Amino acid sequence: MENFLNVEGLSKSFKNLSVFDNIDLQMHGGKVYGLIGPNGCGKTVLMKMICGLMTPSCGTIKFNNVIINKANAYLINIGVSLEKPELIENISAMDNLLFFAQFRKIVTKQEINGWLKHFELYEVRNKKVKEFSLGMKQKMAIILAVMENPSIILLDEVTNSLDTKSREILFKLIEKLKEDGKIILYVNHNIGEVSKVADIIYMIDDRKIKVCENINLV
Questions:
Q1: Are 139 and 121 in contact (CB under 8 A)?
Q2: Are strands 4-14 and 66-67 parallel, antiparallel or unpaired?
Q3: pTM confidence score
Q4: Would you say 50 and 22 are in contact if contact means Cβ atoms under 8 Å apart?
Q5: What is the SS3 assignment for 37-80?
Q6: Which of 7, 17, 40, 101 could form a disulfide with 25 if both were Cys (CB 3.0 to 4.6 A apart)?
Q7: What is the rounded CA–CA span in Å between residue 142 and residue 98?
Q8: pLDDT tens, position by position, 1-20
Q9: How far apart are CA 142 and CA 57, in angstroms?
Q10: What is the mean pLDDT of residues 70-99?
């Protein structure tokens, strides 16, 4: 069965600031959805609502007709990399991944080793994260987002600090995840990069969201 995510009549306000006004959005498994818009338009806010970290002012977000909220988002298995990587600086890369893996108990140590090798971090797996470069930390954040085989994957500016080779590794991985039927929402300030990765591009403009038909006009 194909997975699907529906955003229905969603609005979000912070005190006197309205970020979204009655938006609708549909996403299906096996596609990459790009999300673009100016700084401060609400891209990260939308991702936080999808993964249950933030509550809409009104409206619903449904995965396969089940409403996502703070109480049940954990059960849906959503992979998330939002803004800067959130890692435990004083322990090793391996211990970081094992620490986060212990909650769901889905991914094995052998599989974690595979992800470290995939992103060329295996040789430094026992090194403390505080000694990592920004690019290495970014790769760790990507591993955390995908290692538990989530149905929905939210990637927010994940190519920041990545070198060319690491970007290509990521893009090939996204293509594989798409083939596996994942719902992928991809945010990046580089519109050219979004157009390279995404099948459909949504644009946030004046508290609304719409399909971007012509990327060259943005």
A1: yes
A2: unpaired
A3: 0.94
A4: no
A5: CCCCCCHHHHHHHHCCCCCCCEEEEEECCEECCCCCHHHHCEEE
A6: 7
A7: 15
A8: 789 999 999 999 998 899 99
A9: 29
A10: 92
What residue has token string 């990260």?
44
Rg of the chain taking only CA atoms, in angstroms: 17
Rounded Cα gap, residues 93 and 209, in angstroms: 38
Cα–Cα distances in angstroms (integers) from residue 217 to residues 5, 145, 166, in the given order: 28, 32, 29
Q: Round to whole Å and give the CA distance between 144 and 115.
A: 9
- Give the CA-trace dihedral at 160, 162, 164, 166, to 10 degrees: -130
Residue 21 host element (H or E): strand 17-28
Give φ, ψ of 2 to 5 degrees. Answer: -75, 130
Higher per-residue confidence, 155 vs 1: 155
99 contact partners, CB below 8 Å, separation of at least 6? 88, 91
Cβ-based neighbour number of residue 30 at 10 Å: 15
pLDDT tens digits, 26-69: 999 999 999 999 988 999 999 999 999 999 999 999 999 999 98
Look at residue 93 and tell me whether its pLDDT is greater than 80: yes
What torsion, rounded to 10 degrees, do the Cα atoms 203, 205, 208, 211 define? -30
Can you say how many angstroms the Cα of residue 48 is from the centroid of all Cα atoms in its chain? Answer: 10
Helices and strands in the chain, H and E counts: 7, 10
Residue with tokens 């970014």: 138
Q: How far is CA 157 from CA 70, 81, 83, 193, in A?
A: 23, 8, 7, 11
Taking the C-alpha atoms of residue 42 and residue 20, their distance in angstroms, rounded to an integer, is: 8
